[in-house]
Every structure is written in C-alpha cells, then in structure tokens.
Amino acid sequence: MFKDFGVKPYLFPMPAYMIGTYNEDDSVDVMMMAWGGICAEDMVALNLEEEHKAVANLKARKAFTLSVPGMDTLPESDFFGIASSNKMADKFERTGLHAVKSERVDAPIITEYPLTLECEVVEMQSQPYGLRVLGKIVNVLAHEKVLDDAGKIDAAKLNTFVFDQMQNGYYAIGEKVGKAWNSGADLMRK
C-alpha cells in the first residue's frame, strides 16, 4: 500500500553542497544548497532563489566554489544554510572556518572542506521555478586525507553527509556497498 503525498520535492538523498563566493567587500560568503549537482562532464547546475546574497555575488564575480562538507563541519555547514549574509555581515567569521583565495577563479576555498570544485559562471537562467546557475568546472581540489593509496579520491574518506527533505535531517554516508557498472553485470547474462 502506498500513501499519496502530492507534489513535493521528495528525493533522497539530496546533496549538501557549499557555495563559496566573495562579497563586494571581498569578505567570504558561504551558503548551503541542496537543489543542484553535476549536469555534464565539466558542468554543475545550481537552482537558487534570487534573494540569496550568493546570487548577487555570482552575478558580480562570475565565479564560485562548490564544496562537499565533512561530518566534522556539520554544525558550521548547517549554519551556512540558516544564516543569511544579507542580514549577518560576519556570517563566515562566526564559524571559525578558514578560507584562501582560489588560484583559478575569483572565489574562496574553505580549507576545512575536503573536496572543492572551482567553477566559472557560464550562464544564469531565470526560470519560473527560480534561478538556474550553470557553472563550468575549471578544477577539482581534494585534501590529501581523502585520497587512496593510488592518489584517487576515496568517497568513504570524505566522511560527508546528505540532506533529507522529508524529515529535515542529515545522514552520514561513506560505506561502499557495491561497484558501479559491475554489481548488476550478472543480470546481463540472462
């Protein structure tokens, strides 16, 4: 038996990504977002509401970083989703996190986040459902603590979390439970 919920944004998991931009005074702004992700080999799509400070920053700087937070920064990352830089000028400073300027784009890299995509704004599309920002990935940075012995990024070592829109919760992820393009291969032989 199924229960009907109507039209809701209920997918699981939803990402918990951190958008890093610079404000007009060169201070750091970070906001948490869940509606977006990879949309092509070298592109990301972010679905945002126009009133976010990050949107003004994206329009002005044409650049951003998109980071995957670790469990060790869950309180700070959640705070970035609660607080608005439009109302709280010292939002980033309150967290105690640290940032350095990207060498490739005009945006900050939050040093505590283990995985960061450095992106250039390619297009901003006003849609009936909000603003879609398309960004070109110009580089990926990963902290050495999340690399395996072969120097590749190990998802389990990211120690990250995902968002649950249905219960407003966060869930830890990291256990590898199968191998992509392999776990179902036996069904090809039937």
TrEMBL record:
TM region positions: none
Keyword field: Flavoprotein
Domain of life according to the entry: Bacteria
InterPro entries (UniProt xref): Flavin_Rdtase-like_dom (IPR002563), Flavoredoxin (IPR052174), Split_barrel_FMN-bd (IPR012349)
Residue intervals of the Flavin reductase like domain: 12-146
Cofactor annotation: FMN
Gene Ontology molecular function terms on file: FMN binding; oxidoreductase activity, acting on the CH-NH group of donors, NAD or NADP as acceptor
PANTHER family listed in its UniProt record: FLAVOREDOXIN, FLAVOREDOXIN-RELATED-RELATED
Family membership noted in the UniProt record: Belongs to the flavoredoxin family.
Protein name: Flavin reductase family protein
Organism name: Candidatus Allofournierella pullistercoris
